[in-house]
Amino acid sequence: MANTSDLGESNPSLQNYAITASAVKLASLGLIICSSLAGNILLSLLVLKDSSLHKTPYYFLLDLCFADIIRSAVCFPFVMISIVNGSVWSYSVISCKIVAFMAVLFCFHIAFLLFCVSVTRYMAIAHHRFYSKRMTLWTCVAVICMVWTLSVAMAFPPVFDVGTYKFISEEEQCIFEHRYVKANDTLGFMLMLAVIVGTTHVVYIKMLCFVYDHRKMKPAQLIPAISQNWTFHGPGATGQAAANWIAGFGRGPTPPTLVGIRQASHNANRRLLVLDEFKMEKRIGKMYYMITLAFLLFWAPYIVSCYVRVFVKESAIPQVYLTAAVWLTFAQAAANPVVCFIFNKELRMRFRACFPCCLTTQTPMEPYCVI
């Protein structure tokens, strides 16, 4: 390595420490890259292969996996090369700006995408009829294109030195140069990221309040209607009985008032359809909130260090803390597939169905009878 020889001439213990630290960094980052690529590729193949997962929330999940795959395959190897070279960027300034642009692009992409997903989750719970009609495949494509456009708009200005991209040796990567606030032009980008993440949590809190309020609703006190041959009249005549007959739950001859209206075929599970959809939407909302929470937890230490460098003049952040904070942002790319499989039962079931070779074989139980 470039710097360890100089350290070794002055102090052999410092050389051993630098070699050990570099080895730990390389091993941990290599594990993160392998885990991220394996997990996100496997999850992407599952969504693409299984037609039952071709739904709105999983289109967004596919885009999230795509971004993490590119980030792990393109940005992280340059960090490993800089570690091998002794915390030195050995390429051109333009290449450093390109790598930094991609790193910031993927950061804002995740933030914007999780915000849009939170809005769609709220719509799926609070305005399900509108959501089911409007959230088609092309709507998802439009939202994803909008997210990428906003991310490019946030990450592109520093290429022209509006918030300079620079190689930061303490972080082993090309990223924003976080200077003191009087000489800083990256504060706006950091504030925007904080606002997006905070607004996303506000939307989820609003959705949680909506679900809690509707769980506490008291049943309506209805006045019974008067029936004469399916002709309902009186204060309680809401038309529900006729609607039930049209839905396929009525028996006997056609009521006189409904002559000419075709009755739907009876389905024993039709009564539970709305409840099952609600449970599914709530389960997917929980999964996405855990992804959002994981994003906040993994990025919070690094964001705190950025604000300290911006607002505290001549601040000295411990190198161990800064390295751990940067590596946590790298680990976030590998955490999303794990969170998805832990908090989404449907993904686990479809994974067992689509990839039975990845599961351990179980010994079949022999049938028995009770004597």
TrEMBL record:
It comes from the Eukaryota. One of its GO terms (molecular function) is G protein-coupled receptor activity. Signal peptide: none annotated. Keywords: Cell membrane, Disulfide bond, G-protein coupled receptor, Glycoprotein, Membrane, Receptor, Transducer, Transmembrane, Transmembrane helix. The keyword Cell membrane applies. It is found in: Cell membrane. Residues 39-340 form the G-protein coupled receptors family 1 profile domain. It is a multi-pass membrane protein. PROSITE patterns: G_PROTEIN_RECEP_F1_2 (PS50262). InterPro entries: GPCR_Orphan/Phoenixin (IPR051509), GPCR_Rhodpsn (IPR000276), GPCR_Rhodpsn_7TM (IPR017452). GO terms for cellular component: plasma membrane. This is G-protein coupled receptors family 1 profile domain-containing protein. The gene is GPR27.
